[in-house]
């Protein structure tokens, strides 16, 4: 009977009656994270033999939920709370559980079957379930997909656990692009430039990465397309300094800096239109959520600061102040609608956010070292950034109000992360 649950491919679904769970209501961006949902996530039960790769499934789910910063994850199994297919919710409720993840696995040859379900402990009801039939090498992927579902079901926020992060690593004149799972696993190199490579940015669908490199001569724009076979194309070839490119929200345009002014072109880089005409240096454009505005860095006031203008170059206004500001990144979520940026003061570099009108500036990091290169998650609620707080630069992530800062990489020497939407199912 229990084995009958272990069916289907990676997208198969358990269907339960529609129930409503009390979802998290997000606090203001500068406020504390709301009281976390207490979720019990015990080990999977084995239906025959022990398999360490199958056990990894639930470990990944726990780690994902902890990284989200919205859950209090408890690994307790509370013996006696479950017998066969019947769950006694009372001891779970008395222990403080609000939700429960329970599952089973069966390992046979090179196939692992996993059945896992999410329960509302307070309502004593099943919420949703999935079954996965996968190989050992794809157990982590299946776990990330289930954690995405749990996140959405309990908070209303899209999960980011299947997303990936692209970053630059290497010495100054010998850098390349690397890609990894959002949690720092499965790192692999995706370019062979060995040059001064900078500022990658993922397209909205996560399939392309644009960046600048002096591989040939000066700094030009390049784009690579991800897939079973990675392809690369050089977009610009003029003897000009082209850098810090970024895709528009619809992926149909790119904004970039050319010789100290902001330009916008189609995805091919051709027929670029100049937006700024100032004696200052204007760099690092970043698009608003719907593409109607662009934030960028300019030293036109004497020190580098963040400015916002309409996407046709009109109505330029300064939105940052104090110290000097760099690395603006606009949240892709219109309900968040914040610009993250770096403020350098007295030798320290920390990450702040500000509204597009310059109001409600908030400091997110408090390290005495350098915290730089913020990039928003595809759902627009989390930020990945670099920090030297532990020595060499590593990648960290945090919630949109600066809480739950967690290190993602080990080994140092990483720069310019860009958070990419994960591959489709």
Structure description:
This protein is mostly beta strands. It has two domains: 2-155, Rossmann fold (3-Layer(aba) Sandwich); 164-420, 6 Propeller (Neuraminidase), CATH 2.120.10. Helix content is 9%, strand content 41%. The chain has helices at residues 52-68, 89-94, 139-155, and strands at residues 13-14, 37-40, 45-46, 71-74, 82-83, 86-87, 99-108, 111-120, 125-134, 164-171, 174-181, 188-189, 197-202, 208-213, 220-225, 231-234, 242-247, 254-258, 261-265, 273-274, 282-287, 293-298, 305-310, 317-318, 324-330, 339-345, 348-354, 362-363, 371-376, 382-387, 394-399, 406-407, 414-420. The strands form eight sheets. Strands 1, 2, 3, 4, 7, 8 and 9 form a seven-stranded mixed beta sheet that branches. It is globular and about 70 Å long. The two termini are 29 Å apart. Mean pLDDT is 89; it is low at 1-22.
């Amino acid at each position: 009977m229990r084995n009958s649950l272990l069916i289907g491919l990676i997208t198969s679904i358990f269907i339960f009656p529609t129930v409503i769970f009390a979802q998290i209501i997000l606090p203001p961006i500068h406020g504390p994270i709301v009281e976390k949902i207490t979720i019990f996530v015990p080990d999977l039960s084995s239906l025959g033999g022990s398999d360490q790769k199958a056990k990894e499934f639930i470990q990944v789910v726990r780690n994902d939920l902890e990284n989200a910063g919205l859950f209090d994850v408890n690994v307790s199994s509370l013996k006696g709370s479950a017998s066969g297919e019947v769950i006694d919710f009372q001891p779970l409720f008395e222990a403080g559980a609000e939700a429960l993840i329970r599952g089973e696995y069966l390992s046979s040859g090179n196939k692992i079957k996993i059945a896992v379900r999410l329960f509302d402990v307070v309502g004593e009801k099943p919420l949703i379930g999935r079954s996965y039939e996968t190989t050992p090498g794809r157990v982590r992927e299946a776990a990330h997909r289930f954690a995405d579902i749990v996140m959405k079901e309990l908070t209303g926020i899209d999960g980011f656990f299947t997303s990936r992060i692209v970053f630059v690593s290497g010495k100054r004149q010998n850098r390349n692009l690397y890609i990894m799972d959002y949690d720092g696993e499965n790192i692999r190199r995706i370019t062979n430039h060995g040059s001064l490579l900078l500022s990658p940015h993922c397209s909205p669908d996560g399939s392309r990465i644009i960046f600048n490199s002096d591989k040939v001569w000066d700094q030009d724009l390049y784009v690579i397309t991800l897939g079973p076979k990675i392809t690369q194309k050089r977009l610009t070839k003029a003897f000009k300094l082209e850098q810090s490119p970024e895709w528009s929200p619809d992926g149909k345009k790119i904004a970039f800096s050319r010789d100290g002014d902001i330009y916008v072109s189609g995805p091919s880089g051709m027929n670029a239109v100049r937006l700024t005409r100032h004696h200052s240096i204007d760099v690092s454009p970043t698009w608003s959520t719907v593409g109607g505005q662009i934030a960028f860095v300019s030293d036109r006031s004497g020190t580098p600061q963040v400015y916002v203008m309409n996407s046709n170059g009109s109505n330029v206004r300064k939105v940052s102040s104090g110290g000097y500001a760099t690395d603006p990144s606009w949240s892709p979520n219109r309900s968040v609608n914040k610009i993250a940026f770096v403020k350098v003061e007295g030798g320290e570099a920390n990450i702040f956010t500000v509204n597009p009108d310059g109001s409600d500036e908030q400091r997110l990091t408090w390290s005495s070292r350098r915290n730089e290169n913020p990039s928003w998650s595809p759902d627009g609620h989390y930020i990945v950034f670099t920090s030297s707080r532990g020595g060499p630069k590593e990648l960290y992530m945090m919630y949109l109000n600066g809480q739950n800062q967690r290190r993602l990489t080990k080994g140092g020497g990483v720069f310019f992360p860009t958070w990419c939407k994960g591959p489709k199912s």
